[in-house]
Amino acid sequence: MAKLFDGKKVVFNGDLLSITDACTYKYAPQLNIPLSFWMNPKTVSFYEVFFGGYNIKMPNEFLDITPVNPAEKCDFPFSQFVVLDDEIVFFYNDHAIFYFNNQEALNFHEKKKVENSVIVGKKTTGSSKVCKQTEHNPDNYNTSRECFYKYMNLINTYREYRKELADDSAKYLQKKIIPNKDFSVQCDGGCISVIYKWNGPDNLVVTQQFDGGETEISFTKEELGSRVVTKLFPD
Fold it and tell me: Where on the tree of life does the source sit, at the highest rank (predicted)?
């Protein structure tokens, strides 16, 4: 962990972001409220306490920094981080890495350091994940939400995703699924059908057809966990 971030400086220059010996990319700052970023009130409460242990107050809004072009060659965790007030925070391997403006700020925030509080464990948060939400042209689809579940396989990610939904949304997703088995189910209450389509062992696309439009949920297994992208297509 220390070796990965050792000597790395974060430099903003106009719309370009440079991280020493890592990458440079045009960045897209997105203003988020804590709940829209972490998607779970319990997780937000955890981070409020966690940041408080370092004399950092959770702001009502903060910036989520990602590349404008997702194809930019910049490895995680340098491809996404958040800017609170004057603090930059990277999340990596269940740890939080802070950047401060100067040594004085670093010393101030170290005074209330809580032993082992840097660990963001699954037992505390329910699941270790990072989410972002992006608005799109309504002529395409109005909203796309993306969450990355660290160190979870695809099936467990599906279960966790379903568990986090409100009851009236979770009821449209099957409680149990079988890897690589395509199927569809009929539903009611404004729902027409739900289609499960596997594109190999590492990708599942669930399409929910409603009276008012369509929701597509893509689950993809990656090296460090699984990614879930939810797209809404209104009629």
Answer: Bacteria
